[in-house]
Batch of 3 targets.
Target 1
Amino acid sequence: MSTPAGWYDAGTPGHQRWWDGVQWTAQERVAPVIAPPMGWYPVPGTSDIRWWDGTAWTPYRVRDGRPKPDAFAIEPAATGIVLGIVFLLLATMQVLTGLISSNGAFPLVAVLMAAAGAVWLIGGISTNGLRRLPAPQGAPFAEIVVRPLPGDVEGQGAGWYPVTGQAGRWWTGARWSWYVGMKIGVRPGHFGPRSYRISMIAGWVLAAIAFLALAVGALGIGIGLAASGDDILAGLLGFLGIPFGLILAGLALFILLLTRSRRYAMVLPEGPPPVR
């Protein structure tokens, strides 16, 4: 029985030649690069075991025997870079306000904003840098600590089920896995409960700062009105405090509502998926 027609190794690394079913032809091509399937792989040149989503490395790795994200894991990377710039701009505004008003509370808020901006920016840049690492080689890591993996079947009805408007979670047929499918790809979610708590705390902290800024702004407006507009400093505090407080309040509300709506993308659902 003859070998069917097709592209086969041409004897030159990285090249293939066309076999017409009877003999070799003169047609050659560069062998297509087949990316490894998603999974946990050793990163070439390092001691890391990192999640490969089938296209690129992600900021999730196995460390100390369990899956966890990098210290500054931001996805998508562009989001971290944009938010970092926004928070740094807000910090700059607070520094300028503090210099004008000589109020000791404003520098503290500026430091908090600058720290948040630095975290977002560093995370975005470092996550973006992972795409320059070489693709995985060899067999994937599949120890019990990372299972069940997407594709593992332990009963009937296994598959992806939506848990939010934009994310799904793998159901093995017997239990939920920690892996979440999103537009950017499949991501491990073993650290999800901790991230949920941190996001909710961050939202409420921003809400508290917003309330403080609004209170200072309202106080400044009140003092300015009582002084019949002669107190320029009080008027300036009201003019800057109210808009800043409203911006922070909107940001806090956005974080709290977004975190709540994505709850089951971060923590395991409380029951099995609906019967298909």
Target 2
Amino acid sequence: MVTLSTLAPTLSIRAEEVTPRQASNSVLCLELATQRLRISLLDPQRRMVWLDEYAQSSVLTDQSVLAYLPALFKEHPLLSFDEFQHVRVSVLSPAFTLIPAQLYRKEYASSYLALMRGHQPPPNELAHAYEHKEGFVSVFGIDRAITEFMGEQYPMQPFTYVHQHTTLIQATRAVDRELTSRENLFLYFEDEYVTILFRDDHQLRYCNRFGYKNVQDLTYYVLYVLDELGVDPEAVNAFVYGESTPFAESYVALSRFVPTMHIGQLPPGINPSSELEELPEHRYLGLQGLCLLG
């Protein structure tokens, strides 16, 4: 039997109790990863007024967080509502790619993922796409069970499904537009992964995710990407987001080669309630990018 104790709350901040009427005019945002779920709510004024985080209580389990969702949705004070203005879901799947908008064809979505992987997608995977305002389309795989479960929970609500890299692209675009520097590097840390995004003259030039086991591997990946892009690591303007601090081993190691590194700022357009303002601005970039979609 699945219980909520297997999916433990690690953070819960709520500006106010939400009524069914308020929920019907609000946007529910869910960031769904293999072993973690983050929840936010945009109220009718599009303020972030809710942030819950759940993670598996044991790192030894190999079950997906999807296995725990039915119990959580049944008992959660917000997710148990059956009506929202819109539901946005971010997933973190290994299959994703970016296609120039002028070349993208909807009927070939699965083929793009097969070409990227070198083999056909598994039968339980659906190919989804999201068109960015920057001239390209994000194509990614999503577990069919996720879309079926969400559809059962909110059968009358419109959905937007995106990959996590889309939320990071959205959030860094908002930050980049406010910067005067031309070359800007964004590093998003999560577990033993780093997502590297590079923007040049306000255009996205690179986006990819790397797994690493030690800071030597991490340093190699970052410097390799910069070298391939022809970017001077000592001159690029670098921002760190996610699970990192200036005292983290990864941050200290990278700063020896990328001396301009600093902790990233809150993306423009995010309007958190006063209760959420105390959170580190750089910590939840993916969820913030999901809130910025529109």
Target 3
Amino acid sequence: MPFFKRNHRRLPDNAPDMIRSPRRLRVLLIDENPTARAVVARRLSHLGYDVALAEHGFAAINLLVTHPVDVILIDMALTMLPAIATMQKIRATNLGGTACFVMLTGRLDSRSTVEALAAGADDHVVKPFDFDVLDVRLRHLCQRAETLGALARHNAELDARIARRAVELGETRETLRELQVDRARLVSSIQALHDEVERLSAARN
């Protein structure tokens, strides 16, 4: 399960903002065909990705324990642990984190494509594929995942702030209630003192 790392290629100055990334993206390729693994890893590494390889789903799960990734490419032709089952196991264990799942399907395998997307895959790519197109699609998926993650974190922060304000409001209401009780006691004491003064004054007269 080697990692392929190369120097990041320089994107053209006019490259769309969505495909620029402040860091190298990490890809896990799960494919039982060693030749396909080598070819895809080499091409993706030249495109600026750090690529990890797994020969089947079980190896991928073991690798993800210590190596988080941004994208998981799964060949739909897996046999030891089928592709959809591999995706579901990774998600069930939460080892994939926020990684995007992309299925690699055959040109005439539309049924597998439908099954993969219905099972929750983020995208699919038909083989053989254009690596430049694949590059843009992967970066777009990661950008979208990062945007959704940022939105989720922002919403969580808002929820936390609302919860804190609710607690503070509850404490303020309790303090106000206590002040109102103290005020009522004070008014009652003043009234009692006034009544006592009136009584003493009347007694002297």
